[in-house]
Amino acid sequence: MSKGVFITGTDTGVGKTWFTLALIEALKEQGRKTNGMKPIASGGNYVNGKLMNDDARLIMQCSSELVDYELINPYVFEPSVSPNFAARRAGVFVEIDQIVASYNHLASACDNIIVEGVGGWRVPMSDEISTADIVRELGIPVILVVGLRLGCINHATLTAEAIRADGINLCGWVCNQLDKEYLYKEETLEFLNEELACPNIADLDNMVGLDSVEMAKNIDPSFILGYGAR
Question: Taking the mean position of all CA atoms in its chain, how far away is CA 4?
Answer without folding.
Answer: 11
